[in-house]
């Protein structure tokens, strides 16, 4: 069956208005309903509370990359209790950040967050910088994280494009089921066009559209009947055509190098003294894959080899 034609996106004018006729996805007409929905339905998350401060927001953004909220919450609370300011983390060896990261996955994020804390302490007197350019200059921080911290911590006007926001824009405005696998220039342009002119409204829109993607406009089993912009959604209006690109497969974990790396790190996190090679050899039977995983951890700076076949989390 031929898929319905993708609706043409209505241009947003430079003054923030749209000339879209009623019933089409009109760009800025999305702001009000989505923000009103967010005001009523937003989850009470600790990094959204005033006491979290910019550092709490930054920690959450590092942890939430590719990791669901329910797994982040306990680690986040423990992290902030132990290291309430960047300088507190900066004083510790990077291996302690890896240890505290626990089972969140993608542990290089812990090293990057530690590096950012050191840079904040050395360059900015221990305060998370307010300027987007300064945030972007910190080690381990890319465009998304810099924009998210500037927006969520300081209420600034920046396009914040995570997977959830990209999916909302793909469906509501572009009329397709899923965004491309990697963020495109066209997506960035669209996100900039849709930014409210007012800084406070822009930062609320960023948080609200992200929450909408997380709770309503989900990757599977979307809840269109509860969506505040269902009547404005281009994908809904087109009959919800199915994705036409390559099949979108979830990431596998069992049997991969990621699983082996995780098991090796689990042993090292539990140990307070260097661990001999013989202990690490017990975590995985296949020697070639086990050696490859361990070499990768050393190469990534997550594990430090010592003389005598010993290993530990990094001290520097």
In short, what is this structure?
By secondary structure, the protein is mainly alpha-helical. Helices cover 49% and strands 3% of the residues.
Features:
about 325 residues; mainly alpha; 3-stranded antiparallel sheet; 15 helices; 3 strands; globular
Q: What is the H/E order? A: HHHHHHHHHHHHHEHHEE
Morphology call = globular
Distance from N terminus to C terminus (CA atoms, Å) equals 59 Å
DSSP helix count?
A: 15
Average pLDDT value?
90
- Proportion of residues in extended strands: under 5%
Provide the helix percentage.
40-55%
Structural class: mainly alpha
Cα-based radius of gyration, to the nearest Å: 22 Å
Q: Taking strands numbered 1, 2, ... along the chain, how are they ordered across the largest sheet?
A: 1-3-2
Number of strands: 3
The parts where pLDDT drops under 50 for at least 5 residues are 1-26
Largest sheet: 3 strands, antiparallel
